[in-house]
Amino acid sequence: MTLIRVLFYGMSFIAIGSALYAALSKNLVRSIFIFFVTLFALAGLYVIALADFVAVTQVVIYVGGILVLILFAFMLSGRETLNVIEQRKGKFINMAKVPAVILAVLFLAVIVNIILKADADKLPWVKQSITQQNEITPTSSTIDNIGVNLMTTYLLPFEAISVLLLMALVGAAHLSRKEGRA
């Protein structure tokens, strides 16, 4: 077994284990901090897949931006809001959750179907990497393409995400303020 394969399995185990712990933990602060580990493990998987730009983007945007925003929103939220959430935890079977559960099961079925029907050995980029003795070399044109596409084709979605993050930050600030102040 090669070192790359050992690193891949190690990072995969860390990502899956920490994601399960974050989803199943009853302590919200621990879930948020263990989600840091999950996102860093995913960035490690991107590095192993030679997607360095995606790995750096993962760390900068998700770990540095969104997760810190979630942490601040949690820390700035009032104790009354957290008490309301704690009171609702006891009700596991709730009719409002039924559509979400149905949608999640359907999504899982689609993902499993795609995995079972996909023939990964016949993908063109996999064939190309096999013929090149498993060496994929990044070219400068891919980095140029990412920059050009980000500032032309994908500029509107990029700006829409920034507005969405701004709205989330304003919402967190609104939730954190006391009702007595105007």
Structural class, from helix and strand content? Answer: mainly alpha
The whole-number mean of residue pLDDT values reads 77
What's the alpha carbon Rg, rounded to whole Å? 21 Å
Through-space gap between termini? 63 Å
The main pleated sheet reads as: none
Distinct helical segment count: 8
Name the poorly predicted regions.
none
Q: Fraction of residues in helices?
A: over 70%
Order of helices and strands: HHHHHHHH
Strand content: under 5%
Structure description:
By secondary structure, this protein is an all-alpha fold. It has eight helices and no strands. Helix 1 runs antiparallel to helix 2, helix 2 (28-48) runs antiparallel to helix 3 (52-76) and helix 3 (52-76) packs parallel to helix 8 (155-176). The chain is globular, with a radius of gyration of 21 Å.
